[in-house]
Design brief:
single chain, 83 residues, mainly alpha, 4 helices
Length: 83
């Protein structure tokens, strides 16, 4: 039995089979960082792309990602004001 003969036993292709990894649109919706957020560019460079990414961020985590203690405090203060 050659490889070509398996096709008649398995006629479905990946394009016709439903994907099990579909994600509902509301699960991927993210709130982008506000334009006036302090250090927005640095936050994006550190991997924070949305407000959801920053929800549980701590001062120590920001410091570990290259922020100074003062910068981390400014970011956290601005996030408190948004809530």
């Amino acid at each position: 039995m050659g490889i070509g003969t398996l096709r008649r036993h398995y006629p479905k292709t990946a394009a016709t089979e439903p994907s099990e990894a579909t994600v509902p649109p509301e699960a991927t919706a993210a709130t982008s960082l506000p334009e006036d957020l302090p250090l927005r560019d640095k936050l994006e460079a550190a991997g924070y792309r949305s407000l959801e990414d920053l929800r549980a961020v701590s001062e120590e985590e920001l410091i570990a990602r290259g922020f100074t203690r003062r910068q981390a405090a400014r970011v956290l203060e601005a996030l408190q004001e948004l809530s």
